[in-house]
Amino acid sequence: MSRTLFVHPLLATALATALILFAGSVALAQSNAPTEAELDAAERRLIDHYNMREGPVAMRDLPEWAPIKKIVVRDIYGPGSLGTTDARLDWISKVAPGIEFVAFKTANEAIESGALQDAQAVLGIGCSPEFIFAFGPETHWTQSSSSGVERCFYSSGDESIRTHELMQERGTVLTSQRGVNSIAISEHALSLMLALIQGVDIHIRRQDQGIWGRSFTDRVKDPHIDWELDGRTLLIAGLGTIGIEIARRANALGMRVIATRNSSRDGPDFVDYVGLAHELNDLAAQADVVLAQLPLTEETYKIFNAEFFEIMKPSAYFINMGRGGHVVNDDLVDALRQHKIAGAALEALEPEPLPPGHPLWTLPRVIITPHVSDYSDKHEDTVWLLYRENLRRYIAGDKLLNVIDMKKGY
């Protein structure tokens, strides 16, 4: 017996529309993968958008430069717009035909396998001594998986010194991910600054206690919150790629931006004054917010200490976006307890994680984020764009992006 199923006209229309939308979404998903032309254009934008710098020397001019036969890649990421690990390797290999790619999820797996011993290039492995010691004598180029490479130069013990010496002896070229996260980190920095100035940390702690407080009442009383940014002075210690992006955004909010850098007094138009490193303390006395975005070197280690906090205004905030090794924690705690500064936001600490029970966890007017500012929805794809572009340049014998100066350490 046959049966006729009656479908209301409105329901039929809805079902048809749903099927059309589903088919369209499938087609769109299949077409979402960027075309080769789009990726090439993205690589060209990589330099300008993320302010990446070319190294001073073309690879072909280095005596150690030689054809690549094997590349070891660490892929720690989940599927992005480029797909899975296999899809990413297939895409990146288009600029490296005939070259063997060996992928691992962890650096330890790569070390234990012995695959590093005969690789000429390594992508995404990192920069600590155990990794560098595992490289073979033919490894001429390593692309670090982070922006900072201080582990190659300033880790504790003799191993770090030997790592530096070994890389120089072999003529190893080290490149970083500098700039990949500059926008994400700059936005995180601004969010911390705004949270301190607007007293968001105070309101969150009150919320946890079920207390309704207003900033103009005695219940939430702090003379250093709720001031407007317009006309206030931000000091950026370390006007590099990330520092420039922070300055750009702070300037757009009406702040007067001053900064320090090692290389020169040159800076973009939206920075009012660029001082050299030795001017840091003098400039700190002017600042309403001091934001640290320095590389970790022998010169910058523990640079933010009791003497520095004594120079800052009692109404000023301190934000560390660089490395935990820049700050003397005990001195910062004392400065906060004695109200020598108004508050602090710490994205980087030493050690990490901060031990339970440390005073910084519970001190008022302190915001801590667990070194997460480099994460963004564009991070993975941008990293792979950098890998591919640097690989293309290396094979062609051109200048690489983000080359680390072995003497300076950044």
DSSP summary: helix tally: 14
Count of DSSP E strands? Answer: 12
Q: Report how far the terminal alpha carbons are from each other.
A: 81 Å
Shape: elongated
CATH fold annotation of the largest domain: Rossmann fold
Report Rg: 25 Å
Please give the CATH architecture of the largest domain.
3-Layer(aba) Sandwich
Largest sheet: 7 strands, parallel
CATH class descriptor name of the largest domain: Alpha Beta
Mean pLDDT: 85
Helix content: 25-40%
Tell me which oligomeric state these chains represent: single chain
Low-confidence stretches: 1-33
Structural class: alpha/beta
What does this structure look like?
The protein has 14 helices and twelve strands. It is α/β, with parallel strands linked by helices. Helix 2 (36-49) crosses helix 14 (379-396) and helix 7 (182-197) crosses helix 9 (241-252). The strands form two sheets. It has a seven-stranded parallel β-sheet. The chain has helices at 9-31, 36-49, 85-92, 107-113, 129-134, 158-170, 182-197, 200-208, 241-252, 280-284, 306-311, 329-337, 359-362, 379-396, and strands spanning 70-74, 100-104, 121-123, 141-143, 173-175, 233-237, 256-261, 273-276, 289-292, 317-320, 343-346, 366-368. Helices cover 37% and strands 12% of the residues. It is elongated, with a radius of gyration of 25 Å. It folds into two domains: 36-179 and 378-396, Rossmann fold (3-Layer(aba) Sandwich), CATH 3.40.50; 182-368, NAD(P)-binding Rossmann-like Domain (Rossmann fold, 3-Layer(aba) Sandwich).
